[in-house]
Amino acid sequence: MGYFVGIDLHGDNNYIGILDEEDRKVFKRRNRNDINEIKRVLEPYKKEIKGIVVESTFNWYWIVDGLMEAGYQVHLANTSAMQQYEGLKYIDDTRDSFWLAKMLRLKILPEGYIYPKETRSVRDLLRKRMMLVQQRTAHILSMQTMVNRNKGVPISGDTIKKLSNEEVMGMFSDVHLTMSAQCDHEVIEVLNKQIYKIEKAVLKEVKLKKPYKKLLKVPGIGEILAMTIMLETGC
């Protein structure tokens, strides 16, 4: 007898559903998001479990890592690709756990990539950098718009990045416009420091693999962006 496990994962709890090879529900239970509790729940079935499916939600790292370390065969469900199989859902069950288990049993589960734990944090750090760069861009655009709207002249993003505090103070005669420009400028400076700190840490930690060095020949792609592409592709 083999068992197939589906885990419907939420922010602070999860729901485990176990099916056998005849599609019979043999176990269901809501649990706390605690890996030790989950392992205790699964222990009586462990020898016969053929696979466990976890939804690719925002918080899957801890449970996938914990189950894999416990020796289970874990699959990460690609939720965006599962809509075509919604007709297989159990009518009398509002939870997705048995649906996940059933797709695994039928060998039609659309799977997501389980990114290696060893380099996942570096990839996520580069994602943090990307978020900070986007925030910096928003403040640069804010200053560009302010200057153009009030002075009728354009100003480049590179120029804004290089402005000193004194230059920002002298941009406008209006005190409120000056304060607005100062807010943008000070945030940009803070973001610059954090972005540089991340770049320095990543460059020290990770080396660009040979195939990805070809990206450096593409205009606009530097070492950090090439490294981001490398890590996002799971290499």
Task: Offer a concise description of the structure.
With 235 residues, this protein is an alpha/beta fold. It has helices at residues 35-42, 61-69, 97-105, 117-151, 157-162, 165-169, 175-205, 223-232; strands at residues 3-9, 13-20, 25-32, 49-55, 74-77, 111-112. The longest helix is centred in the middle third of the chain and has 35 residues, at 117-151.
What labels would you give this structure?
single chain, alpha/beta, 235 residues, Nucleotidyltransferase, domain 5, 6-stranded mixed sheet
Description of the structure:
This protein is of the alpha/beta class. Helices cover 48% and strands 15% of the residues. Helix 4 (117-151) packs across helix 8.
What is the number of domains?
2
Low-confidence stretches: none
Number of helical stretches of at least 4 residues? 8
What's the shape? elongated
The helix-and-strand class reads alpha/beta
Placed side by side, the strands forming the largest sheet appear as: 3-2-1-4-5-6
Radius of gyration: 25 Å
> What is the straight-line distance between the termini?
37 Å
The count of DSSP E runs of length 2 or more, i.e. the number of strands, is 6
Roughly how much helix do the residues carry, as a percent range?
A: 40-55%
| Residue share in β-strands | 15-25%
How confident overall, as mean pLDDT? 92
Secondary-structure element order, N to C: EEEHEHEHEHHHHH
Protein name: Putative transposase
GO molecular function: DNA binding; transposase activity
InterPro entries: Transp_IS110-like_N, Transpos_IS110
Domain Transposase IS110-like N-terminal: 5-147
